[in-house]
Amino acid sequence: MMNNTARAHTNIALIKYWGKKDADLRLPLMSSISMTLDAFYTDTNLVLDTEDKRFYLNGELVTGKASERVISYVERLQKLFHVSGNFHVISQNHVPTSAGLASSSSAFAALAASFVKAYQLDISKKGLSILARLGSGSATRSIFGGFAIWHQGQNSATSFGEAIDETPEMDLRMIAVELNTKQKKISSTQGMEMAKTSPFFIPWIHENEAQIIDMKAAIENNDFTSLGELAEQNASQMHAVNLACETPFTYFEPETVALIHLVQDLRKQGLECYYTIDAGPNVKILTELRNSKEIQKAVKQLLPTVKIVESGFGPGIQYLNE
Ligand code: 2P0
């Protein structure tokens, strides 16, 4: 069996992607900036010339919608490159699935990379990020390590990811607080469509350009305070958009709000930290290495049963066994 295994790490958006201008091409209405994480990743091997088309995740055959999305994605790439044939997608996910950490970011980045290897295509990282984008928007950024930006672009060729700094100096840590691992009720794809009905949606898009400029500056200046403040504002704005839709919705659970208060309290006590929250109830706390342990202790005291994973910067796409 050919080993085309690629490893991609997940990323957490500091300036978020929440809204599409083209759903089929996954062209976003805004640019986004993320931190690639070392603690969460997906390994995927695309095996060609099999008897049928299958998707295995963590050793088990996947059926239904999740499998259809993965298989039709590979078929789409095959069409793009004028190749065909059966295949198995064999993935190991080291990410809590659908728990608010975008496992789709590492999943489709790894799959795109494995596809390119399996068919021995000569594709740049920029090209790879465009292919990953067709599977899942956030996957565009997971091709790169450290801090990455996804330029929204105007068409498929101009909507790609790029590294801002793959080896940052900042000792930024992300503390992921996993409240529950239940499948979320509203997918990101659905949530983004619903968000368009919010009166705050257009202001949300208008804010993006300045936030991107400011976040890039915070990264370049190694300025954790500005980075944290901006990330927290941006996430709060995204969730405010959702609450104000025609059919209002929120990803927050009671514990989500409790953690927002905790972060604010810790800050008042001089422990500098900020929150960010994606399309799920889990809270990610941004802090620096020197305060990380104390913050985790405070989280455990408030919510003794939660799972906490701390993460630093992860690398960009890698091929295993090379
Ligand atoms: C992000 N999220 O920038 C934003 C913030 C969640 C909240 O990208 O529809 O799975 O497949 O392109 O990439 C998660 O959504 O969405 C996401 P699709 P994706 O990370």
From TrEMBL:
Coiled coil: none annotated. Gene3D superfamilies: 3.30.230.10, GHMP kinase, C-terminal domain. InterPro entries: GHMP_kinase_C_sf, Mev_decarb, Mev_diP_decarb, MVD-like_N, Mvd1_C, Ribosomal_Su5_D2-typ_SF, Ribsml_uS5_D2-typ_fold_subgr. GO terms for molecular function: ATP binding; diphosphomevalonate decarboxylase activity. GO terms for cellular component: cytosol. Pfam families: MDD_C, MVD-like_N. Keywords: ATP-binding, Lipid biosynthesis, Lipid metabolism, Lyase, Nucleotide-binding. Its EC number is 4.1.1.33. Residues 179-309 form the Mvd1 C-terminal domain. The keyword Lipoprotein does not apply. Residues 8-160 form the Diphosphomevalonate decarboxylase-like N-terminal domain. One of its GO terms (biological process) is isopentenyl diphosphate biosynthetic process, mevalonate pathway. Belongs to the diphosphomevalonate decarboxylase family. This is diphosphomevalonate decarboxylase.
